[in-house]
Amino acid sequence: MLTRHTHQALYAAFDRFPSAKGAAVHIARMAHTLFNMVGGGLLYVLGDETLPAYQEEPGPIEIVRSSSTAPNLLQRTVAYGRYLAALRDQQAATLRLCHFRDPWSGIPLLADPERSYQTIYEVNGLPSLELPATYPA
Asked: Where are the domains of the chain?
């Protein structure tokens, strides 16, 4: 079981949530607005060993976190995308809207040729901007 509920909305971000980073504040606000509109939703984000892999909030809102420990960024993005595709497939019958912030989330959400949900690409998390700042070498 990937999630306990079915959802009409999914918000995906290849960002640790929650965190002190400004992106986390934006993710919280955007997801809250989206989920209020449809009566709950699924938030898929990055986590780490200090955060639960699964969290349930009133709404119903489910937070699922990818916490790959692969040493290579590309390996972590692939693991993140595979799990997002599995979440997408589990929710396929009810999803109406998928909102994503970055290419790593967009690839699995757009890859389903039979998708019946709409997508919104909130252009953030661009590798050309994020990677040099995160990995200066």
From this structure: 9-134
pLDDT in tens, 30-87: 999 999 999 999 999 999 999 999 999 998 999 999 999 898 889 999 999 999 999 9
**pTM greater than 0.85:** yes
- Which residues, at least 6 apart from 9, have a Cβ–Cβ distance to it below 8 Å? 34, 35, 37, 38, 40, 41, 42, 95, 96, 97, 98, 99
Q: Is 44 exposed, middle or buried (0-12, 13-18, 19+ CB in 10 A)?
A: buried
The tokens for 4 are 């306990």
CATH number for the segment(s) 9-134:
3.40.50.2000
Strands 54-57 and 61-66, sheet pairing: antiparallel
How many CB atoms within 10 Å of residue 117?
17
